[in-house]
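G., before I forget:
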Amino acid sequence: MSNDIAILGVGMHPWGKWGRNFVEYGLHAARAAIADAGVRWQDIRFVSGAATMRCGYPGYVAGATFAQALGWQGAEVNTSYAACASGSQALAAARAKILAGECEVALVVGADTTPKGFLAPAKGYRPDDPDWVRFLVGITNPTYFALYARRRMDLYGDTEDDFGLVKIKNSEHGFTNPNARYRKKFTMDDVHASPMVAHPLRLLQICATSDGGAALVVSSLDYARRIGRGHAVRVAAISTVTPTFASEVVEMPDIATDSAAAAAVDTHRFRASIPLKAYEEAGVSPRDVNVAEVYDLSSALELDWMEDLQLCPRGEAARMVRAGETRIGGRVPVNPSGGLACFGEAVPAQALAQVCELTWQLRGQAGERQVEGASVGITANQGLFGHGSSVIVKR
Amino acid sequence: MTAKPKVAALEGWFTLDEQAPQLLGSRCKACGTVYFPKQTSFCRNPACDSTEFEEKPLSRRGRVWSCTNASYQPPEPFVAPDPFVPFTIAAVELEAERMVVLGQVVAGVEVTDLKVGQEMELVLDTLYTDDESEKLIWKWKPVA
């Protein structure tokens, strides 16, 4: 029996720093997805929202907030919060409802309005809060991305210009994407002229925070067939696994990793474990993947993701980038949307935006960003507190 | 002018032995897992349900897992000198504990001076000074 569900419709509100209420972005994306699906809002029986923690109570109950904005019509609602994986967890909730036979068609929505500047931790002397401790010591988010990047340089011989190539490639990909916030083709000179934030990463190589919204209308395969959409792109797998003790990699906001000194404890890479379950669930191998949307919080992190997704052996991602294999037209295009480099991060919407892009790619509707003949795509992201996700979409 | 008293910026996180300071972690009495910062109420090893811990001073030396720097002033609660002085940061892997601990690197060591695998040792240094005291923190220093 197939556990696939159909993606009937996708929609986004363009990413930016619009400064409006997040509900507007979510509503815009939801209406676009409903129109794309060709269903009536009244036919949707489940609304699954990805929560935002920065927009007050309506953000905590995002599913209900979006349902009310669209007009109460008696559907059941759900809200998921899982940091960067919130959108995928909201999608997983909709899939569970559909596969359980409790509803046929569901709407999944995530949207965010981000504040300007740093997100400062609460004040006072709070040594029990790892987030407070690391800022006291002077460790910011880019510190972690830079540690991963520098380790690649020493272990695999990656160079600062390799990371620059990723930025340039993503800026070329996102250049014509109407939903991208940053649409400028950057050169290596631009990268070199950008101020160093955390060696070896420069300002242009670290993703910003953005406002934005993304939505999916999903259904049972049976429903899709009944409305003449039997060939719709499908969700073939959703992985939202947690890490396995003990972590090999120091993760934000921690000051230290777990110790693996106890008997029978080994170290694990969380990022690499996330797609494993997705591949297994979808019954596809990394060699089947035609296109990937990964979380380039830094341009160097995209290289880690390529290896974690097994698109190449460990240590070979930079070689793939140099050879142009991850460009549109290359062997496995990565971030054809332009990625976080062109979008900036809108946390609860981002994992859904990745699925929107893959859906357009697999339908052949990606315009100038089209990856020709794409039939299997994979997303990957990781956030705080053991949250991460990977979604496989196929034709 | 009398010197201000030296106190730990994070009380109980490390010894104040200026010659050979050690980070103070905890060790699960049942499975031996070491924690830094201290874990005192439950063991996070999935195969262990112990609630008994003892204090465990950590190894003073380890090897660079990776390194970077802070070119921009971090937000509060970081207390920056005026003008801000960039500093180097290292993630250091402790062999016996099989864990990686982050920390600033002593002044004068640039990120380009360090390599993955290089041996580092723990020292105490000033994090910042306020009206009452000099706040000490652990830092990593290349082994000469």
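Chain B touches chain A through 49 residues (CB under 8 Å). Residues 59-142 of chain B form one domain.

More on Monday.
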